[in-house]
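Supplementary notes (optional reading)

For those who missed the lab, this is the record we used. Protein: Nitrogen fixation protein. Length: 188 residues.
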Amino acid sequence: MEPMAKEHSAQVVGALEGRALQKRRSRTGRKELDQEMADSFVRRLCNLLDTEDFFGRYAALSPQEKIVQQFLASSEDKSQSDFNCAVSPKVRQQVPLLFQAIAGVMEERSGTMIQSTAEINHEGFGRGLLYSGRVILVLKSLRAGFPFPFTSEEKVIRYGVECVEEGLAFLAKYKEVTALHGLLSLEG
């Protein structure tokens, strides 16, 4: 009976490992991004980066090169933030710019005025908030700076597009509720 017990336990362990592997794959298998929305987000982010480029040093660069040189943190910046648990200057730059770009795309898509507020303290705790009037559309908490600093253009675009989609879905869901007084009404 001992060989049968070992064989049975090996089958059970194999099945459990297979399920765990399948769960990991399902988490990493992300849905496709809306390419039009991603392009809008990149354009908005580059416009914001251009406004901070006072002397036009990066004017001749492609949008991807602008994002890499002006927005993304280097691996040294990321390790510095991880090492001393303090927020690097790159993160302090990334947080408000990212949420302003997201608000711009949402405004473009919905035709509604969207505002952004982003704050982060020296320890990396804070929030990013997108709202229209009194309706909060997106609220992201920052814990120890996570998910900042971004070091990959793909991650920035994915995060931005996901926030836009979340905000637009919330706006569409509550459009009827706020139709009586409007999103920007001061009446209750």
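If you only remember one thing from this example: The radius of gyration is 22 Å.
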